[in-house]
Specification:
Helix 7 links the parallel strand 7 and strand 8. The protein has one domain (2-249): TIM Barrel. Helix content is 39%, strand content 17%. It contains nine helices and eight strands. Helix 3 (75-82) crosses helix 4 and helix 8 packs across helix 9.
Length: 255
Amino acid sequence: MYVDSHCHLNRLDFSQTNLQQVLLAAKAQGVDHFLCVAITLAEHPELVEIASNYPFVSISAGLHPNESPGQVITKEALLALASDPHVVAVGETGLDYYRAQEGLAWQKDRFSVHIECAKACGKPLIIHSRAAKKDTLAMMRTEKATKGVLHCFTEDWEMAKQAMDMNFYISFSGIVTFKNALLLQEVAKKIPLDRMLIETDSPYLAPVPHRGQSNVPAWVSHVAQCIADLRKISVEEVARQTTENFFNLFSLAKR
């Protein structure tokens, strides 16, 4: 059994399929639970509807650091969204300096609100960090982020170790299957198996052998197989432990 710990079901390519078919195809590959992660506030009702129709889908509430630049969100407004019983996490949130290094104080303010909300409601944080290692770790530490996951991890062992020391899990996406992801593959070998999650981030970042295509949750099995090969263990062990890790972290998700 696999869990796709981070996907965007509402953003999949439905030009030749539909959500039910996508989920059935994933289940045929052994994927039994899905965390559909929020990127915008406006899509919250759509995510609630998906979770209401499919009890094996959990959702989050949050505003991605790349979305709606400068938009302010209050702790009260985010808490209201996070109070929905289908919501098991806050985010995705964080810092993304990939395209800009300056004028991003609003990203830090937004990240801070998400951290406060997660602590207030007791739900884990889903953190997105790109080209912002130092500031991400600093904010996690100074604002006392208590639990969560660094999703779609692409950084080094130093960042992974510091995050784990703060009670965070590390999640690997299809990027770990890329031939040029040698440093990330080394991290995947070193991460304690009981601190690891796997994800697709679909429809983005399709793993090898589907790189370049629109990603789907069924392909989380390729991520698991790659990690199993790197660590020289069975894929069943990766599946079992990452599934257990998911439900330990996202304790409100229904098995």
